[in-house]
Each structure stands twice: as C-alpha cells, then as structure tokens.
Amino acid sequence: MTGLRIRQSHWTRWTQRARWPAGALALLWLAACTVGPDYVRPGVDTPQAWRTTPDPGWRVAEPGHAPLQPDWWRTFGIARLDDLEQQALDGNQTLRAASAHYEQAQATLASVASTQAPQVALNGGLARERVSADRPQTNYATPNTSTVQNDVTAGIGASYDIDLFGRIRREVEASTASAEQASDDLANARLVVTTDLATAYFALRELDAEIDVLDRSTVLQQKALAFVTAQHDSGAVSGLDVLQQQSELDATRTQRQLLVNQRAQFDTAIAALIGVPAPQFTIAPAVELPPIPVLPTGMPSDLLQRRPDIASAERAMASANASIGVARAAYFPDLTLSPQLGWESTRFASLFGAPALAWSIGASAGEVLFDGGKRAAGVAFARAGYVAAEANYRQTVLDAFQQVQRAVTGLAVLDDAHARAHEGVVDAQHLLSLANDRYAGGLTAFINVLDAEQQLLTAQRTEVQIAGDQAALVVQLAKALGGGWRPDAARQNGGVGQTAQAAPITHDVTPAAASPDNPRM
Question: Where is the signal peptide (predicted)?
Fold first, then answer.
C-alpha cells in the first residue's frame, strides 16, 4: 500500500507540473485553427486552339501577376505614337486614380496585418483631486473623511488577440487578395489607356489618309468639271453632264468635311488620354499608316495569364472566399490577453519606487449566445459574395476567349481583304496607264482618263480603310492578350497579319500625257 501511495503521489505531482504546459499546447493548437473554406481556384473550360490556327500547343491557363509587356506599342515603330503613349503614362488622370487606389489597398493591408501583433500603449496621468467626505461608506466603524491629494500615474499596457479560430488570419488573407486585385486593376487601367490611345491614333491616321485621297479626288473632279464645262460651252454635251459632275464634286467635298469632323473627335480624345486640355493640343495631319505586324495566333493559353482583368477577378474571388472564414469566425469566442504594468503615487519623487508598483495579467473571453440570426446572415452574405465573384471570374475568362477569337478571325479576314484591295489598286494603276496611252494616241477622250484616275483613288481609299481596320484590330488583339507580344515570338510562330506592306498611297495620279488645258476628242 505504501508503494501504491508513493506512486499516486508521484502521479499527482506530475499532473500538476504538466497542467500548464498542456494548457499552453492546447492554446497553440487552437490558435492554429482557421475556420472557413480554404481557397481553391475553380477550373474553367479552356479551348485547345483558336479557330483558323493549326498550333494545338495549349495547357490550362492560370492567371498570374507577372509584369506585362511594358511598351507593346513600340512594335509598330512609330516615334509619334511612342511619345504620346509616354505622355499618357505620365499624365493620364485615370491611371493616377488607379495608382492611388492601389496605395490605399496597400495601406489597408498593412493596417489589417498589424492586428496580428500585440498592441502596446504607454499611458500616464496627473491629477489633483478632493475626495468627498459624504461618499458611501465601506466600513461603518470608520467614518469617511475628505482629503485633497495628488494622483500621479504612469504605465504600459498591452493587448493581444490570440486569434484562436483564425478570424484575423482570414482578414489578412482577404486584404492580401484585395491588395493584389488593386495591383491588377492598376495594370488593367494602364492597358486600357494605352490601347485606347493607340486605337484613337490609328483611327486619326486612317482619316488623314482618307482625307488625302479625297483631296486628290477633288482635284481630279475639278478637272473633270472644267473639261465637261468646256464641252458644254462648245455644245458637245448637255447641261445634265455638267450638273452630274458638279454633284460628284460637291459630294466629295461633303465627305471630306465629315471626315475632318471625325478626325477632330479623335484629336480631342487623344488630348484627354494624355492629360492635356483639348484646346491646347492638336496633331498635325500626316499620311502615316504603319505596316501591320505578323501576330502569333497559335498561342498557348498561358498568354491569357497576362490579362490583368482575369487576374483581378481571380483575386476578388480569393478575397470573397476569405471573407466567408471571417464571417464564420463570429460563431466562436474571442480570447484577448491584456497584461498591465504601471506605477501610481501622490508624488513624482516616489512614483517609480517599489511601493508604487502595480501590475496585472489576465485574459478576457467573450461569446455571443444569441444574436437573432445576425451571424448566419453574415455567413450567407459572404457565401453569396463568393458566388458572385466566381461568376464574374468565369465570365471574364469567357470574354477573354471571345475577344481573342474575334480579333484572330477578324485579322485573318482583313488580311485576305487587304490583299484583294491591293490587287485592286494595282489593277486601277494599270487601267490608268492604259487610259493615258490611249489618250496620248488619240483613241479615247480625256474624260476616260479622269474616270480611270477616279477609280484608282477609290481603290486606294478602300485599301486605306482596310489598313486602318487592321491596325485597330491589332490593338484590340494586344489588349485581349493582356499587353502585347514579343517581336521575336511574332516571327517564330505562325500568325495572322499583313505579311507584305501595302504600297504607300503617296504617288501622283495626274496623267503625264494629258491635261484639261489640252483635251483631245
């Protein structure tokens, strides 16, 4: 029995010694718990290849946060466009606002993350006070007296939320995802501004080329009108021919004015994008249609990783998922440690002496027993937010595939259309050359030469319009791919685009062998 009692005594002492470590381990285990679902990015259906492309080299796309091609527009090799894009990056107010929102998100993350650390505060006080003699008594045998005395205090206190069930960790997770989303939003704003600027610039230059064609057409129609008028004066034609030629001239001048108005709209749009008041900005007209670069169309789906709007939607989904954990943590109790150390005395001289020392250490815990369904509503709200974020993510991915496919298909069609339009220009040039030869040999009237010249200008205008559409669609594809491409990739992969540069529409179409001053019948 003695041995048994000794063993029981040893067991009792051991359990008493182990009680505090066991309690500490239990707290550590609870602190490692995190309620709410862990985030897993949902899968999306990914096409194996674009239509019209032979390259099947695809894998599952995962939105990433790598930096975009910073200066994709330099692929066009236009110095004026490069200058405008840099001005937009420096002065665009939308980009400035997006940058400020990103800084706000970073500050919010720092604020939320700070709650993981203990909050330490210094406090002190100085007061001179009179204690009432008529205060409630704590001892009826000892009467109260009134006293006047100083009260000097100094101390340091701390407060630390143990975060047993991961509420703070989920809040940090949500804020981290939100900060990354703000970064992606900033990248997307940069992409939108640069592509909008490039689109406006190419539209403006396409209009410059069209206006140039109409100006030369106007010169030819004026010559034709003078020729028909001379024939009418000699009685060779009726006044109807003169009116028809005058009507064509008026229509061409009207078209030119409409194009000038459209050009002014793009001019002011560029001014707003680069942050300059519209009345203080203008771009001088120039016939400057760039060659269309060859773009890789057999791209693996990881190029979609570079789309900042997809990455932003994915981060919004991660933040919404973490918010579910924050809402579910409200069902569990909070535990806060709050140690205090301080001194209190009636004199400064004895404030930090041993008798003035005061301290406390303890913890507070709280749990809501009934809230009328408030916490359940919070969880339901968070879950619905995640469903909405997931739907937005999937729709963003679908929109991305749709935009890339539309651009790829459009470029393939426009490439063929441009080739045919260029053939039409060559044919019209041959027709004009033949008309000049026949006019020089007296085999045809001068009006036929003017008609051939007008057909050439019409063909050239069609070619200009297609080239403008190609440039705009290339910019749209760059936007759909998330910021452009590397020139070496464009050369190494099969692509869609104009492989041969269009003949510059700057040649003189005035016939060398004839003039309206010396018409031949």
Answer: none
